[in-house]
Design a protein that fits this description.
alpha/beta, 2 domains, 15% strand, four-stranded antiparallel β-sheet, 16 strands, seven-stranded mixed β-sheet, homodimer
């Protein structure tokens, strides 16, 4: 039969015949950045935003699983078959650890929420995707996003054919005047801004943190202009606990969909995140529903449910730490804050006092990223030269813009590095920058 | 501040303003079926297609994790940090157990494939979603599906706004003449059939199995008409090993995208599946690419990567069983085959020999499902009466059709039941059917 079947020509597909998100700059960006990192494995990466690995311990996985198993045994009155079913069988679309996540939110984030309005997702990215899929109903719909912004929001928006309107950043995080202007312009064009995507705490890539006043202003503008706020908060716990509250904790009118991640504060390899979507949805058949219920309907057609084994691992970590991931991450918080100080001090030492005109940087109070402004266009070609000749990687800022126009800014990340790697990395970066400026 | 914020009215969204997949019959179907099951918890469910739980053991999760850890330690020359990174950190978008899955496919399915053309996904559903998202490029694109068909294909197609053209089933699984006619009609209408979705082994809901000859014919028609075959195979291992080969194993021209699930043969709670997508894709920048690479680009914007912890659990099961899930599932195969015989014998005993005119059933050789034809429209209202008055659940067949028109067929599933539950369930079903026929 193989002989006969082989008469047929080999299938060849053409990229132009596939969904256009595959040809979009953001897709090419990810490919290019991964490919550069692979081609220069000996380069120190000031590009990867991965969590620190120094405290990883595989035994924790077993311990967390056992902790959740014991918790379930108590909750299910010792019904072992029910416990096994919960962890090993297909499960509830909205997840099984929503009650524990609600307790964590109360303890760490000042957010009080009905566990039923939480959907546990495959990482925060799925929460983002589901939210955009639900909200994108017609060609008139658009998404607002503070830009430069996380690559994943560009990508998810493209998957649901939802245009993204950039809103200007400011040193304060977001230019609220521009937000109002963009919304007015969109409405004048017959468009419907559905939501604003914002990372209020130590945004990727800018590291900016919104003040409490800006958060309150955002809630006011969103209410007046009737769009939702998508608050994405993967880094908030790595800052000063006396910092501004989450927007969701200030939100008493269900204006905010809160997107949470356990990748940085839990275990990246669990791939567990969540959305809080407590908005009432009318018009359906059979009883009152929330936006969370709609996200779950979509989820059942994308991933069915989030692995309960992975959820159990995260749940165990919550249980072992009295629901506080701030407490659980005491060592990590020290590490990230220490790395941040070392990068800022290191930049000052190498480029401070006007020793290298045109080089400056911002000074985030937390998070994983610092932006460095340089007196040249920090584009992909220069990144490649930096990797090849100076063995150091960084991220050109244009990858965080929809227009993909090269700019004179590079993003440095430091979350996964040891102090000695940071020092060598900055040395190499200095060599690269000075050579580029001089050439 | 809460006082001030509360001046804003509570957000209310309307279903009509959200993506229309949320209002589609398939979405309402899932809701309705779940809701009936919840309202009548004491009913015996001949509706749920869940795997059998009798052999679940939580200790296996620990054992499988350790087995994969040991495997990685050997492969990574004892580099413990690298092993920890592999299981606990963000990971490769296409997955980390693709090499083991390739070995399993060679052992159990006669499929030889480059591991690089495998994408590990969050269950088979994500593989389905990614494939449809990639293939849907324009308004002209349509999907072919043997109908009645798995609810998840209807749902995934709606998420990417891809119309589904039904192709008639036959006792042989698929009506090939109708397939050719539907393709011709679609092309005449200016549409572009991108792929045919088919479950060749013990399809949900029909239980039908395609002959080898039909599989070869399918490959021929797909090549002549230039569409892909999406072969979804969650139940194949639960049949006679001397049965027909997978379509993918007959495919030497990369015509088939194979969609695999470990939910039934591995551990449902791991939520791990995969796609084999070895089609060459031209037109991209930088080197040759496959359809698997395109699926990965989309995946990076949906779930980023499949939990490596969950992948490790499945990998451990593969390693412990020399890559054979047929061997690993010897007990489950006996159980499913035994349950199937019991249901078929039980139907014969209760309805055989013309004792209940108009009642007949098909006789699948494997899988999880049997179809029963009855002399009345088996609709949602009757299901509700069956649940309330007779304490037995089944699935009205119209939930597997895009048109959602009630028909005189019910799907029975038996995969998760113990023999005594099957007996009582069939007694109750007989009571319900005889009462309905008599009334």
């Amino acid at each position: 039969m193989n002989g006969e079947a082989s008469r047929y020509p080999l299938v060849q597909l053409c990229l132009a015949d596939l969904h256009d998100s595959l040809s979009a700059p953001v897709s090419e960006s990810m490919n290019f950045l991964n490919e550069v990192a692979q081609r220069f494995p000996d380069a120190i990466s000031l590009a990867a935003g991965r969590p620190y690995e120094g405290y990883f311990d595989l035994d924790y996985i077993h311990r967390y699983l056992d902790a959740y198993r014991a918790h379930l045994m108590a909750r299910l009155d010792g019904d072992e078959a029910a416990v096994r079913r919960m962890i090993m069988q297909y499960g509830r679309t909205k997840g099984i650890i929503h009650d524990l996540v609600a307790k964590h939110l109360a303890v760490d984030e000042g957010i009080t929420v009905d566990p039923e309005s939480i959907v546990i997702t495959v990482g925060c990215q799925e929460a983002l995707y589901l939210t955009l899929r639900v909200l994108r109903a017609s060609d008139r719909d658009v998404l607002l996003a503070v830009t430069p912004s996380y690559v994943g929001i560009h990508g998810a928006a493209q998957l649901v054919d939802l245009p993204l309107l950039p809103v200007k950043e400011s040193p304060e995080g977001i230019d609220l005047d521009d937000l109002v202007a963009v919304v007015a312009g969109a409405k004048a064009d017959g468009l419907r801004p559905r939501a604003l995507y914002v990372v209020p705490d130590f945004a990727n890539p800018t590291g900016a943190r919104l003040s409490r006043e800006s958060r309150e202003q955002l809630l006011r503008i969103a209410a007046e202009e009737d769009f939702l706020i998508l608050e994405d908060n993967p880094y908030g716990l790595f800052g000063d606990p006396a910092g501004p509250p989450t927007i969701k904790s200030l939100d008493v009118s269900a204006r905010v969909v809160y997107l949470g991640s356990f990748a940085k504060t839990g275990i990246p390899g669990a791939r567990v995140g969540y959305a809080i979507a407590d908005q009432v949805v009318t018009g359906g058949s059979g009883g009152s529903q929330t936006l969370a219920d709609q996200l779950a309907k979509i989820k059942s057609m994308v991933t069915v449910n989030t692995s309960p084994i992975a959820q159990a691992v995260v749940a165990g970590k919550l249980l072992e730490n009295d629901y506080s991931l701030r407490a659980a991450n005491a060592r990590e918080i020290d590490t990230y804050q220490g790395n941040l100080r070392q990068v800022l001090d290191g930049l000052e030492k190498r480029f401070g006092g006007g020793s290298c005109p045109g080089v400056s940087w911002n000074t985030p109070a937390g998070g994983f990223f610092v932006l460095v402004t340089v007196p040249f266009l920090a584009d992909d070609e220069l990144l490649e030269r930096s990797a090849r000749d100076h063995h150091v990687l960084w991220t050109p800022i244009h990858h965080f813009y929809a227009d993909s126009e090269p700019r004179n800014v590079m993003r440095l990340s430091f979350s996964h590095l040891r102090p000695e790697e940071i020092e060598v990395g900055l040395d190499r970066l200095e060599g690269f920058i000075r050579e580029t400026v001089g050439s």
